[in-house]
Structure formats: C-alpha cells, structure tokens
Amino acid sequence: MTDKETQKKVEKLHAIEEGLRNILVQKQNLQLQLLEMENALGELETTKGNAYKIIGGIMVELPTEEIKKDLNSKKEIVDIKVNNLERQENKLKEESSTLQKEVLSTLKE
Residues 8-67: pLDDT tens digits? Predict the structure, then answer.
C-alpha cells in the first residue's frame, strides 16, 4: 500500500472519529431529554386533577392524562432517535476498527 493510500485511510479514520464524537453528543442530549420526560411522567403520577404545560410562551392548564399521552408520544420518538444513533455508532465503530487494523498492518510492513 502506498503512503498516499495510507494517508487517505488515516484521514478517513479521523473523520470517522469526529462523526463518533458528534453521535455521542447527540445521544447524550437525547438521553437527557428522556430522563427529563421520565421525571415529568413520574411527577404526573402523583398529580391529581389537572397539571400545567408550557406551550410557546404561556402556561396552560390541561388534564393530566393529556399531558401524559403527549409526553409518552414524545418519549417514544426520542427512544427511536437514540436507537438510530446507537446503530450509527456501532457501524462507525466497526468501520473505524477495520481501518485501524489496515493502517497498523501497513505501518508494520
């Protein structure tokens, strides 16, 4: 393998690592959102009657069940996003591992 090919693989490896970092940041943010939603749902379990929800710039009183339904729907969407990010992360990790092995074997020669 030529030096240029090796250099291209190293550059691709750096790009993959940067992509992995971006995915991890996105995943952390989504997991934080999930935690907040779960906490809110837990609080709604102890709430009797109506609760308040901020819509735009105003606070609106709504039935607790309506807010729970909305939060569960949003939670489901965020779960799907986290799962997609995990699949992307695993794919990039495999690609990174393969490239690392190729570059290391080339450098040993």
Answer: 988 999 999 999 999 999 999 999 999 999 999 999 999 888 999 999 999 999 999 999
User: Domain tally for the chain?
Assistant: 1
Q: What is the per-residue pLDDT for 1?
A: 57
CATH number of the CATH domain containing 62 = 1.10.287.370
Range of the domain at 86: 3-108
3-class secondary structure per residue, the chain: CCHHHHHHHHHHHHHHHHHHHHHHHHHHHHHHHHHHHHHHHHHHHCCCCEEEEEECCEEEEEEHHHHHHHHHHHHHHHHHHHHHHHHHHHHHHHHHHHHHHHHHHHHHC
